[in-house]
Design goal:
- The chain is an alpha/beta fold and about 325 residues long.
- It has 11 helices and 11 strands.
- The protein has helices at about 20-30, 50-60, 70-80, 100-120, 140-150, 175-180, 200-210, 230-240, 255-265, 270-290, 315-320, and strands spanning about 10-15, 35-40, 65, 85-90, 125-130, 155-165, 185, 220, 250, 295, 300.
- Helix 5 (about 140-150) links the parallel strand 5 and strand 6 (about 155-165).
- Helix 1 (about 20-30) crosses helix 7 (about 200-210), helix 3 packs across helix 4 and helix 8 (about 230-240) runs parallel beside helix 11.
- It binds NADP nicotinamide-adenine-dinucleotide phosphate (NAP).
- The site of NADP nicotinamide-adenine-dinucleotide phosphate has 25 residues, from helix 1.
Length: about 325
């Protein structure tokens, strides 16, 4: 087995450790021999489903501290607790992407955490961001970018990791296909492409930012192994793995436009519908924009310019899901 131990074990505070990638990052940091402390909510997980014991079981080898990441006093008292830390690793993100929550979490909580980290002697922050912020059209992307800028100007060393699509975001239709339903695609299913990255491969990449000098003070777009794949190819592989004839249902992007417009108008009177309109805008974004590096000169997405890391492929994950060897926590970002 490959020796993953760090040549310089550090004291690391992790935010967002109960999320999909946070768990993988915390695991990778522990594996490398770092001294890992995770600052989490007393009730964590989707809809607060995890109590303190559940969170501890998810994060073996890490120390847990509990408090409120939105409260500067709690960050100083409960997270850093007046002690010295070497690094801050954040996989913290709004679970819904709704504008108010995104500005509170992806931006403001990070601003407070950065200030508290400086006080604690932290010299390097590894930030999980998203590749889609390179073309910001949505509130959560602006919130993430605003913090990215503050981190870059903070004087602290940074590694801003912008991954492509996660497996969980591309696995929502496995059950549909298994049960004989058609695979839903926008347009012809070839409007977009991505280089899916597994949770574990991304966790490793984030953890290795602490030791790899060439990942310091850089914005790092990153995808998984292999070629970029379209939604249509995802469907074709799923049908092949399930031993079924491919069957696609085409959803016009214009349908999303109608939904966005209707919810937007109604949202002026009923605010919960405005939030739903933003979620529909998020859906439209992913239906039409690729999760690949955008070439600023041509305005086109470029698979070859999108770096790859890791070993696990989405199609291996599909096989594991179909055979019951893996399960997906889909969370609140799911479109299909
Ligand atoms: N899905 C994709 O394909 C994709 C692709 C590229 C980039 N990304 C980006 O990757 C990031 C992380 O994704 P993920 O799937 O790992 O996220 P996730 O599973 O939704 O986890 C989010 C983490 O943030 C924490 N958090 C959220 N609101 C909080 C609050 N008010 N107080 C304290 N903690 C809070 C959650 O804690 P609790 O457990 O307490 O809720 C959880 O630990 C996001 O920024 C996303 O934009 C996603």
């Amino acid at each position: 087995m490959k020796d993953t131990s760090s040549p310089h074990p550090r004291r690391v505070l992790v935010l967002g450790a109960t999320g999909t990638i946070g768990r993988a990052a915390a695991r990778a940091l522990v594996q490398r021999g770092h001294d890992v402390t995770c600052f989490v909510r007393p009730r964590a997980g989707v809809s607060g489903a995890l109590n303190a014991d559940d969170s501890a079981r998810l994060l073996p080898g890490a120390a847990l501290r509990f408090g409120d990441v939105c409260d500067p006093a709690s960050l100083a008292r409960d997270a850093f607790a007046g002690e010295r830390f070497d690094a801050l690793v954040s996989c913290l993100a709004s679970r819904t992407g709704a504008p108010k929550d995104a500005w509170a979490i992806d931006h403001l909580a990070h601003v407070h955490a950065l200030a508290a980290a400086k006080q604690a002697g932290v010299s390097h922050m590894v930030l999980l961001s998203a590749i889609c912020v390179q073309k910001p059209l949505l509130a959560f992307q602006h919130a993430k970018l605003a913090f990215e800028r503050e981190l870059m100007q903070s004087g602290m060393d940074y590694s801003i990791v912008r991954p492509t699509a996660f497996f969980k975001s591309l696995s929502g239709q496995v059950e549909r296909v298994r049960s004989g339903k058609p695979f839903l695609i926008f347009g012809d299913g070839q409007l977009t492409a991505c280089k899916p990255i597994s949770d574990a491969d991304l966790g490793d990449y984030l953890a290795d930012c602490l030791d790899q000098g060439d990942r310091r003070n850089r914005v790092l777009p990153i995808g998984g192994p292999g070629d970029a794949i379209t939604p249509r190819q995802q469907g074709e592989h799923l049908f092949a793995l399930a031993g079924r004839e491919p069957k696609f249902k085409h959803v016009p992007v214009a349908l999303l436009d109608v939904i966005i417009k209707t919810l937007g108008v109604m949202g002026r009177v009923l605010p919960p519908l405005a939030a739903k309109a933003e979620l529909a805008r998020i859906g439209r974004y992913y239906a039409t924009e690729s999760m690949l590096v955008l070439n600023p000169d041509t305005g086109r997405y470029d698979a070859d310019a999108t770096p790859s890391t890791g070993r696990q492929t989405l199609f291996e994950h599909y096989a594991d899901l179909l055979q019951g060897r893996a399960a997906t926590e889909r969370g609140d970002h799911a479109v299909f």
